[in-house]
Amino acid sequence: MKILSLVEPIAKTAYGLRYILLLIALLSGGCFFYLVLVLGPEMDHFLLPLVVCLGWTICLMGLALSFRLVPSESDREGRFFSRLKAKFRLMTAYSGIFFFLLSSLFLFYLSIRSVFMMTG
């Protein structure tokens, strides 16, 4: 439960910025498709930073929409199906956190790679 309580403030902040994140995602996606479809291969060095920007905004939006409200732990006193339902919610939340952690690590790798690509 500890990791879910750590993610909740980040998700609430990202939820407050969801319109700005949506605008950034639309701009980076639009610029990506403009570079691919209209401009030639001389601007290819901008593609990876645009993909990274789009990936980070999508990751933050997913985090904001999924973990704004953290599910509570199951009651030991509750009925069987209510405990099962609470455990299923927790299992789903932990699976989502694991997915967002993996995608963040991949995006962090792409971010570092794009910085080195842009500088040298």
Number of helical segments with 4 or more residues? 4
Largest beta-sheet characterization: none
Beta-strand content:
under 5%
Low-confidence parts = none
The geometry reads as: elongated
| Rg measurement, Å | 19 Å
Q: For the record, give the distance between the C-alpha atoms at the N and C termini, rounded to a whole number.
A: 43 Å
Question: How many strands in all?
Answer: 0
Number of folding domains? 1
Please state the average pLDDT score.
83
Helical percentage:
over 70%
Helix-and-strand structural type: mainly alpha
User: What series of H and E elements makes up the topology?
Assistant: HHHH
Which keywords apply here?
single chain, 120 residues
What can you see in these coordinates?
The radius of gyration is 19 Å and the shape is elongated. It contains 4 helices and no strands. Helix 2 packs antiparallel against helix 3 and helix 3 packs antiparallel against helix 4 (80-119). It has one domain (2-119). Helices cover 79% and strands 0% of the residues. It is an all-alpha fold and 120 residues long. 11% of the residues are buried.
What layout of secondary structure does this protein have?
Blueprint: H1 2-16, H2 18-37, H3 47-66, H4 80-119
Helix pairs in contact: 1-3, 2-3, 3-4
What's the short story on this structure?
79% of the residues lie in helices and 0% in strands. The N and C termini lie far apart (43 Å).
